[in-house]
Structures are given as C-alpha cells and as structure tokens.
C-alpha cells in the first residue's frame, strides 16, 4: 500500500506499476484460477467417496445449506439495521449526488454492469437451477465461471461412486486420491509466491484508484458497509466460540492469510485453494467436510456481498430522497439473499446482482453510478467476509458431525 501511494506521487509511477508490477499479480491470480477446477474435482470426489455412506453426505449437505442461508439473512439484517439507523444517504448533498451520477453514469464500467445485469434479469427465476446442471461435463470444466456446474457433476460422480461400492470404485478413487496430492502440491508451490503477488496486487489497486474527493463523499456509506462487515466477523467469532468452543482469535489468526488474499484479489474463487489449505491444515476441519462446504460456499455463500447489497440499495434510495417501506425492506432480505447466491465469486460481481435488488425495490438503476467510485475497495472488504463466512461455516458443520480435529 505504501509503495502504491509513493508511486502515485512520482511522475509516471502509476504507469510503472501498471506495466511492471501489476503483471506479477495477474499471473498469480491466473495460477490460482488454473488450479481451482482440478482442486474442486479432486478434493470433492475424495471427500465424498471417503464418506463411505450416502446418509453422511445428506447430513453434511443439508446442514451446510441451512447454515449458509441463516448467515446470509443475518448479514442482510445487520446491513439493513445499520443503514436505517445511521442513514448515510441523508448526509450526501444533492450537488454531490448530481456530480457522482454525472461522472459515472456514462462510464463504461457502470454501463457494462447494467448490460450484464439486464441479461440476467430477463431469465426465469429458476434459471439459476437450470444453469447449475451442465449438459457437457468437459465444457463445464473448461470455464471457470461454470464452477457450480463442475460442483454438480463432481457431487453426482462422487455419489455414484459411493453407490457402486468400494470395490468397484477403487481404481477411480485411487486416481482421484493421487490427483488430489498432486494438486495440493501445486497449490503449495503457487502459495510460495503469494507475498510478492499480494504486494503487486495491492500496489496496483492503489495506483488505479479513483479521485480521492469522490471517495470522501462516499465515506459515510462506505463506513456503514465496513461497520456491518466488521459486525459479521464478530457474529462468526461468537458462533465459532459457542459451537466449537475454539478461541475465535486463534481462528481469525489461522484464516488470516486467506483473508489477506481475498482482500487483494477481490475473488472468493481465486482464494479457494488457500482457504481450503488453511481450513484443513491449520484449523483441523476434516477434508470430508471442507471439500464440500468450501467450494459450494465460495460460489453461493456471500454474506459480505449480501450485506453490501442491502446497504447499497437503501443508501441509493435515501440519496434520491425515496422512502422504503418496511415491507419493501423485508423483500430486500429475500432478493439480496438470491442476488448473493447468484453473484459469481469474481471481482465486482456483487454490483451486477445489486441491479436486481434495485429493480425489485423500485430504486432507479442510475444509482449504481452513485456508488461506483468506491466499489473496488468495498469489494475487497466484502470478499474477506465472504471467505471468513465459508471458513467458519465449515468449522461449525465439521463440529456438528464430529469432524473437527
Ligand atoms: N468479489 C466478491 C467475491 O468474490 C463478489 C462480490 O461481492 O462482488 O466473493
């Protein structure tokens, strides 16, 4: 961060960072994405086939999904309470609203998010389920944005392996066990470069950040989002303490490398290999649990994102002088839950799905332009919470099935 600030103040410094530093970070993120599909495939199949019996999978699966939904609803409720109590939209003058919307409404960033969002909104409500089922396993595996399809195929394969019995599935199981070891070694090697990559990623985020004046105007709104995210970390800590009896500070310390990576990449998917490593090897969650809970969580459980979406929607309404009824705000809980499930685990995805929440509550889409300037820093923070949420839920589920070492 300091290096980034220094380069911003040197003539041509931002160009230097862009040309010579940023590529190192980009290569690292590409390596993480490269490993994501093989990692999910190998570890999820190993996890399921190690279960030996299908009823265990049902228990883990249902506990995971229910806990994910509960944490998401808690996150949105925290966001709604804070944004209503603090009312950040009232502190922003109409000239600033005007300035922000005119600066960003034509920007290609906002426009492309609107186009992407509108494509998704036109789909049927069950499109999400339809999209989860691949029609070609290899096509799904060839595209990182189809992670949920890969998870579907892998679970299907793993369950079928359980059903045919140990003897018949043995050769396939040995293959995936061995693949799992190799992939974990690859993760290990990639992680050796992490400190340099995090340096590159953070320096380039700083040098490409927006006009500081505009960031300042949105300080109160950003503060509410960050406060909500902080409360979520406390919620996880309390849950970890009450349910697993572990010291939450130790938990946070052990997961912190994954949090830092989430912060610098803004992507839960890119962070997944490290989250798995920390949760399995440092926190002691059995691979049978983590191999299911974490990949599924990275794609569907985004507490930070859902909290941000609730705060952003109400903030935009407040700045435009709109009053949202209690009923509408309850509806925001439902839409933001769905929107966070539908958000891809990549940078900026939460903002695309926010359009759906705005549409539901009748808030003008133009409001996106209002919050665009601070989206990246908030994305970094909400991704930290998304990853922490997945890790804590994996601990809770592991504890409940006796798989927390
Ligand atoms: N970047 C977030 C993630 O990957 C998603 C979002 O909120 O934009 O978890």
Description:
The protein is mostly helical. Helices cover 81% and strands 0% of the residues. It is built from 20 helices and no strands. The site of aspartic acid (ASP) has 16 residues, from helix 18 and helix 20.
Write the layout of secondary structure elements.
Layout: H1 2-8, H2 13-50, H3 54-86, H4 94-104, H5 108-121, H6 127-132, H7 137-141, H8 147-164, H9 166-191, H10 194-207, H11 212-217, H12 219-244, H13 248-265, H14 268-283, H15 287-300, H16 303-319, H17 326-342, H18 349-361, H19 367-371, H20 375-400
The structure holds aspartic acid (ASP).
Low-pLDDT regions = none
Looking at how many chains there are and whether they match, the oligomeric state comes to single chain
Structural class: mainly alpha
Note the gap between the termini.
Answer: 37 Å
Number of strands: 0
Chemical compounds bound to the protein: aspartic acid
- Classify the beta-strand content into a percent band: under 5%
Mean pLDDT, all residues? 90
For the sheet with most strands, the description reads: none
Q: How would you sum up the global shape?
A: globular
Number of helices: 20
**Roughly what percent helix?**
over 70%
* SSE succession: HHHHHHHHHHHHHHHHHHHH
